[in-house]
Design goal:
Blueprint: E1 2-8, H1 20-28, H2 35-57, E2 60-66, E3 69-76, H3 83-100, E4 108-114, E5 118-125, H4 147-157, E6 163-170, H5 179-188, E7 192-197, E8 205-212, E9 223-232, E10 242-252, E11 255-266, E12 272-278, E13 284-294, E14 307-314, E15 319-324, H6 333-341, E16 345-350, H7 358-361, E17 366-370, E18 375-376, E19 384-385, H8 388-399, E20 404-408, H9 423-427, E21 430-431, E22 443-449, H10 457-471, E23 477-484, E24 487-490, E25 499-500, H11 505-515, H12 525-537, E26 542-549, H13 558-567, E27 570-576, H14 580-594, E28 598-601, H15 607-615, E29 623-624, E30 633-634, E31 654-655, E32 658-659, E33 666-670, E34 681-688, E35 691-696, H16 714-725, E36 734-742, E37 745-753, E38 766-770, E39 776-777, E40 782-785, E41 788-794, E42 799-806, E43 814-820, H17 833-841, H18 861-865, E44 877-882, H19 884-903, H20 909-919, H21 924-953, H22 970-974, H23 996-1013
Helix pairs in contact: 1-2, 2-19, 4-5, 10-11, 10-15, 12-13
Length: 1014
C-alpha cells in the first residue's frame, strides 16, 4: 500500500561517485601520521562528504508510492437527458461505490454534476456516498452540455496522493467545449476514464430547424420566407409520418399578425420546406416565429425544439422615436410638427406603454426623451415609467448600435425627473447632479421604515430604500428611521439622522440599508417627532418625509402633525398589506393633513417606483427659473448651429446640470446665469460609443421657451439638431452582411466592393454585438480574403442578438439581428457513441485504457453495480519531496567532523576506566601505577624541602672592599679564585649558584647593616 524510495531529478550527476576511490588514494598517505584508527575515520568522513555533494547535485528526492484510489463520478444534468435517467444516475453511483470501494485501502469517491457549468456535489472523501434522493448542488443552466468543464473540475478536485479515475455518465451530446482534446491532457496526468452511456428513448423527434429570411428586404418588394422542419425517426423503428399544425406569425412591437395556420404532415427523415411569400410595406423591425404542434404529443419526444424565430429589419427613411410623459400628452406637439415638415418621420410613444425589447428600438435612428420623468402617475395603480431594463436598452442602443439619443428639458427632466444616478446619466454629456454650493439645489428626505406583514416585507423595504437613495443628488440629505430592540433609531447620522448623500456617504448608506432589519413599530409618534426635529434642524431648501407601513402602529399626536404642517414638510404614506380600513385611513390622514400623497400598494413591485417618484420632490430645486429670465448665447460653433447667426430668443427657466469633465463634451449654447460656467448649459453634445447624444435643458416652447416657436430659426435649429444625432442611414453601397449560427457561435461575414465592383481591402471595420440580456459581446472583424471580412462571437443563449457594423468612416452602418430559437441541446436525440468510445479508449500514462459499459437503464443498475470502478490498472500515485538541501547541510556538518578528526587527538582510555569504576573492578596494573605515581610525588616534595633549607642557611658575602666611589675595584670584582694547578677541576668543590631573589635579599640586608653602623 505504501512505499518509500529515493529518486533523482538529475541522475547523470551520479557518475561522479566513481571519483571516490581516487579520493581514497589521494588521502591515504597524507593521513598516515594520524594512526590507523583516526585515518580510517577520516577517510570514512571524506567519503560521506563527497557522496552527499554528488547526491545533492543529482537532485535527490524522497518518493512515496500509494495504491489508494479516488474515483470521481461526472453526472450529466442537461435537459437532453430525461429526469428519470438523471435519477437512475444517482442510484447507480450510490450502489457502485458501496459495492466496489476498498474500505481497508481508504479509497475515496466524489460526485460532480454538470450542464452548461460544472459543480461539485460531493467532494472526494473516504466513505460511501450517502443515500441521496436528489442532486441539489447544481443551480446553473441545463440547456447546454459542457463536458470539458466537468473534466477540468474533476482533475482539480481529485487529490494527487492517490490513483485517479473519472467515471462519466452522459449521452455525449456536448455543445460547449471540446472534451476529446482535454482527455489527452488528463491521460498524461495518469487519470483513467470510464464511460457509462445514457441511452435516450427511441422515439420520433420533430425539429423546426429555422426560418430563412432574405438578408436584404426592401419596402414594398415581395419576398419569400421559408420554414424548414425535420422529422427524425429512430433507427430500426418503423418510419411513420407525423401530422400536426404549423403556425407562422409576424410580430411588430406588441402587434402580432398570423401569416400561416394550417395542418401539415411531416415525412420521416426528410426536411420539409414551407415557403411563405408576402410583402412588407412599413419599415420596421419584425420578428417571425414558426411553431409546430403535433396532433399526438407522444409522437414527439421534446417540445422545446418545435419553435423557431427570426429577426429582420426593413429600413426606410430616417425614423425617430419620441417618448413623452403619458400624463401630459401633446406637450411637444410644435416640435413634432416641425420635424415632420423637415421630412423626419416621428413616432410618439407614451411613457406608460414603452418598448419591450431591443428589437423594437432598431426601427429608429434616434430616440428623443421629451421632458419625460423616470416615473409618473398619481397613485400606486397608475404609476409607471422606466425600469432598469428600459434604461439599459436605451444606453446600449446608443453606445453599441449607434442610435442617437436626445434629452429635452422640462420641470420633470434630468435630475428633477429622477434620472440622477442612472445609466442614462452616464450616456449624456452632462451630469444631472450638480456640485455647486452657491446654488441651493439641496433637498432632505427622511424615511420611516415599518416592518409590514406582506410577503418578503423586509426585502422590499430595502429595495425601495435603495431606490430612493440612488435617486438623490450628492448635495441632498437622507435619513432612515427604523424600529430596533432599543426603540426607534436612525440608521445612520446619530441624533442628527440626516447626512448628505455625497462625500462618499452613498455607498455606506446602501450598505447599511442592506444590513437593516426593521422591526414592528408600535407607534408612529416617536419616530415622527425624531423626523420633525431632524428636518427642522436641516438647512435644505426642500424637505420631505415618506412612511411605509401597514397602518398598524398607533396614530401620531395632533401636535406632531401640526408641526409638520407648520414647517411646510409634507409626508407621503404608502400602505402595504394594511390592516383593513382603520390602517389605511390612519396613513391616509397623515398624508392629507400634511399635504402629502397617499399610496396603496397592492403589489410590492410597485414600491420602488413610488419611492423614486417621491424622491423627486427633494430634487425640485434643480429647476432654475431666474427672475426676469435669461437670454441664451451661442458659445461654440457647431454643425448643429450652422446658419443660425442671430440672437437667440429668451427663456424663463431650465434644469440645472453640470458639464462632464471630458474633452468630448461640448457646450454649444449657454445661459448667462447662474455664475458658475459648469451649470450654464442649455445645449450640449458629444459622441458616446458608436452613437451621438445631446441635451437641451430647457423645453421646446410650452413653459420656458415660449418665444422660440415664433423664432425664424426654430425649424432649422431642431431639424439640424435631430439630424445630427440620428444614426446614418441610406444606401449601404456595395457592402453586404450575412450571418450564420453554428456550434453555439454566430459567424458574421461582410463583403465589401467599390463602385467598380473591385474589392475593398484593409478596411478598419467597427463592429459591435448585443446579446439577449443586453450585455455587449466582443466582435472583431478581420479580413480573410480580398473584400471579405469575418468575425464571430459566442451565442449560447436563446434569444435575439443585434449586430452593428460600420464598414468605413462616413459609411452607413450595417445592422442586422440574429435569433437563436433554442439551445443546440435540443437538436440531437442520439447518443454520441463515437465521442464516448474515444474517451474510454484514452490510455493514461503508466496505466490501462478505460472501459465503456453497457447503457444506463433502470433495469441495468444492478449489473452496473458490479462494474469495478475502483480496480487497478493505473499508475500508483507518487508524492515527491526534494531533500537535496538536507544533503548539502549534512555534507557541511560531516566536513567539520573530518577537520576535527585530523586536528584533535582524543584519549579514549578514560571511557574504559569510567566503565570499570562503575562496575566496581580494579586490576593490578592500575594499582601499581597508582602506587608509583604516589611515591614520585612524595620524593618530589622531599627534594623541594631540602632545597629550601639550603637556601635559607646560605649567607651573603661581599667579594671585595668597595671603592671610595661606592663600587668595588675592577680587580676585586673581576678576580676569580682559580683552582691550584695540582687539583683537578672536577674535584673542586662546586659552589651552589644562588638565585636572583636570594642575591637581591642579601644585598638588601648588607645595605641595612651598613646604614646601622653609620
Amino acid at each position: 500500500m505504501f512505499g518509500l524510495r529515493l529518486g533523482f531529478e538529475h541522475p547523470g550527476y551520479l557518475a561522479l561517485l566513481v571519483l571516490i576511490p581516487v579520493l581514497w588514494l589521494a588521502s591515504y598517505r597524507g593521513l598516515a601520521l594520524l594512526g590507523p584508527v583516526r585515518r580510517t575515520f577520516a577517510l570514512l568522513l571524506r567519503t560521506l562528504v563527497a557522496a552527499a555533494i554528488v547526491l545533492a547535485l543529482a537532485g535527490v528526492q524522497f518518493v512515496w508510492t500509494d495504491d489508494r484510489m479516488t474515483v470521481m463520478y461526472l453526472l450529466d444534468q442537461s435537459e437532453s437527458i430525461p429526469a428519470a435517467k438523471r435519477d437512475a444516475m444517482l442510484q447507480y453511483v450510490i450502489r457502485n461505490v458501496a459495492a466496489q470501494r476498498n474500505t481497508a485501502r481508504a479509497d475515496r469517491a466524489g460526485i460532480i454534476v454538470f450542464g452548461k457549468e460544472a459543480a461539485v456535489e460531493i467532494p472526494p472523501f473516504d466513505d460511501d456516498i450517502p443515500d441521496l434522493r436528489r442532486l441539489e448542488s447544481y443551480l446553473g443552466r441545463k440547456d447546454a452540455t459542457n463536458l470539458e468543464a466537468a473534466l477540468k473540475l474533476a482533475q482539480a478536485a481529485m487529490p494527487d496522493d492517490t490513483s485517479r479515475r473519472i467515471v462519466i455518465v452522459t449521452d455525449g451530446n456536448e455543445n460547449l467545449g471540446n472534451a476529446s482534446q482535454l482527455a489527452s491532457r488528463i491521460a498524461r496526468a495518469g487519470i483513467g476514464i470510464d464511460v457509462v452511456p445514457v441511452q435516450l428513448d427511441a422515439t420520433s423527434e420533430v425539429l423546426v430547424e429555422k426560418i430563412d429570411l432574405p438578408p436584404d428586404i426592401r419596402r414594398g418588394q415581395p419576398f419569400e420566407a421559408r420554414v424548414v422542419i425535420n422529422n427524425y425517426s429512430p433507427s430500426g423503428e418503423s418510419k411513420v409520418p407525423i401530422p400536426g399544425r404549423l403556425e407562422v406569425t409576424r410580430k411588430l412591437g406588441s402587434d402580432e399578425q398570423v401569416l400561416l395556420n394550417e395542418p401539415i404532415t411531416l415525412d420521416p427523415d426528410k426536411p420539409t420546406v414551407f415557403p411563405l411569400r408576402h410583402t412588407i410595406d412599413q419599415p420596421a423591425p419584425y420578428t417571425y416565429k414558426a411553431r409546430f404542434v403535433p396532433d399526438d404529443p407522444a409522437s414527439d419526444a421534446v417540445s422545446q425544439n418545435n419553435e423557431a424565430s427570426a429577426y429582420t429589419y426593413v429600413r426606410g427613411k430616417g425614423r425617430v422615436l419620441l417618448i413623452e410623459d403619458w400624463a401630459r400628452p401633446d406637450e411637444y406637439r410644435e416640435m413634432i410638427e416641425t420635424l415632420r415638415k423637415a421630412d423626419i418621420e416621428i413616432v410618439v410613444m407614451p411613457s406608460n406603454n414603452l418598448f419591450t425589447s431591443m428589437a423594437e428600438l432598431q426601427a429608429y435612428d434616434a430616440v428623443i426623451m421629451a421632458g419625460v420623468p423616470r416615473t409618473s402617475g398619481e397613485d400606486a395603480d397608475s404609476i409607471s415609467g422606466f425600469d432598469d431594463d428600459h434604461i439599459e436598452m436605451l444606453v446600449r442602443n446608443t453606445q453599441q448600435l449607434g442610435c442617437g439619443l436626445l434629452m429635452l428639458g422640462g420641470p420633470d427632466a434630468f435630475g428633477a425627473g429622477g434620472w440622477a444616478g442612472t445609466k442614462l446619466e452616464e450616456a449624456m454629456p452632462v451630469d444631472f447632479q450638480i456640485r455647486n454650493t452657491k446654488v441651493q439645489a439641496i433637498g432632505a428626505l427622511a424615511m420611516i421604515m415599518h416592518a409590514s406583514e406582506m410577503a418578503q416585507g423586509n426585502h422590499w423595504q430595502k429595495v425601495v430604500a435603495r431606490s430612493a437613495i440612488e435617486a438623490l443628488g450628492p448635495a441632498d440629505y437622507c435619513g432612515i428611521i427604523h424600529w430596533a430592540a432599543g426603540g426607534d433609531q436612525w440608521l445612520w447620522g446619530g441624533r442628527a439622522g440626516l447626512l448628505p448623500v455625497g462625500r462618499g456617504n452613498r455607498r455606506s448608506m446602501l450598505a447599511a440599508v442592506s444590513r437593516m432589519t426593521p422591526g414592528d413599530m408600535p407607534q408612529f409618534d416617536p419616530a415622527m417627532q425624531m423626523t420633525l426635529a431632524a428636518l427642522n434642524a436641516n438647512q435644505a431648501a426642500l424637505k420631505h418625509c415618506i412612511i411605509i407601513s401597514d397602518g398598524d402602529p398607533s396614530p401620531a399626536a395632533g401636535g406632531t402633525i401640526r408641526g409638520f404642517a407648520n414647517a411646510g414638510i409634507k409626508i407621503s404614506t404608502v400602505a402595504v398589506a394594511s390592516h383593513g380600513t382603520i390602517g389605511s385611513n390612519r396613513l391616509r390622514d397623515i398624508a392629507k393633513d400634511t399635504g402629502g400623497k397617499y399610496y396603496e400598494a397592492k403589489s410590492p413591485k410597485a414600491l420602488p417606483k413610488i419611492y423614486q417618484r417621491e424622491a423627486r420632490r427633494v430634487s425640485r430645486p434643480l429647476v432654475y427659473e431666474p427672475p426676469g429670465g435669461a437670454t441664451p448665447q451661442i458659445s461654440l460653433r457647431h454643425s448643429v448651429l450652422e446658419g443660425i447667426d442671430g440672437p437667440l430668443p429668451p427663456i424663463s427657466g431650465f434644469v440645472l446640470t453640470e458639464i462632464k469633465q471630458s474633452p468630448l463634451a461640448q457646450v454649444l449654447i449657454r445661459s448667462p446665469m447662474p455664475e458658475q460656467p459648469d451649470n450654464q448649459t442649455i445645449l450640449a453634445a458629444w459622441t458616446y460609443g458608436l452613437g451621438r447624444a445631446a441635451v437641451m435643458t430647457t423645453d421646446t416652447g410650452k413653459r420656458w421657451a415660449t418665444d422660440w416657436p415664433q423664432w425664424d430659426g426654430y425649424d432649422k435649429f431642431y431639424s439640424q439638431l435631430v439630424r445630427w444625432i440620428m444614426r446614418p442611414s441610406g444606401d449601404t453601397g456595395k457592402f453586404t452582411m450575412a450571418t450564420k449560427v453554428e456550434d453555439g457561435r454566430v459567424r458574421v461575414v461582410v463583403e465589401a466592393l467599390d463602385k467598380e465592383d473591385d474589392f475593398l481591402n484593409f478596411l478598419d471595420m467597427n463592429a459591435s454585438a448585443i446579446g439577449p440580456d443586453l450585455s455587449p459581446l466582443p466582435l472583431q472583424m478581420r479580413q480573410v480574403a480580398p473584400g471579405r471580412y469575418v468575425g464571430e462571437f459566442a451565442a449560447d443563449e436563446s434569444g435575439s442578438y443585434f449586430l452593428n457594423v460600420v464598414p468605413a468612416a462616413g459609411e452607413a452602418p450595417l445592422s442586422q439581428g440574429v435569433t437563436v430559437p433554442y439551445s443546440s441541446e435540443f437538436r440531437v436525440r442520439t447518443v454520441n457513441q463515437a465521442l464516448l468510445q474515444a474517451l474510454a479508449d484514452t490510455e493514461p500514462s503508466g496505466g490501462e485504457a478505460g472501459q465503456l459499459t453497457e447503457p444506463l437503464e433502470k433495469s441495468s443498475i444492478a449489473a452496473l453495480t458490479d462494474h469495478a470502478t475502483f480496480r487497478g490498472g493505473l499508475a500508483h500515485a507518487r508524492s515527491i519531496r526534494d531533500v537535496w538541501p538536507l544533503f548539502v547541510l549534512a555534507g557541511c556538518c560531516i566536513f567539520l567532523g573530518d577537520v576535527f578528526i585530523r586536528r584533535v587527538a582524543i584519549d579514549f582510555s578514560w571511557i574504559g576506566r569510567l566503565l570499570a569504576s562503575r562496575r566496581g573492578q580494579t586490576n593490578d596494573a592500575e594499582n601499581s601505577q597508582t602506587q608509583r605515581m604516589a611515591a614520585l610525588r612524595s620524593r618530589k616534595l622531599e627534594i623541594n624541602e631540602e632545597l629550601d633549607r639550603r637556601r635559607s642557611a646560605t649567607r651573603f658575602e661581599p667579594q671585595g672592599d668597595p671603592t671610595p666611589g661606592g663600587s668595588t675595584s675592577a680587580a676585586a670584582t673581576t678576580s676569580t679564585k682559580r683552582p691550584s694547578a695540582g687539583t683537578p677541576a672536577s674535584m673542586e668543590p662546586q659552589k651552589e649558584e644562588k638565585s636572583y631573589t636570594e642575591r637581591l635579599l642579601e644585598a638588601k640586608r648588607a645595605a641595612r647593616r651598613k646604614s646601622d653602623e653609620s
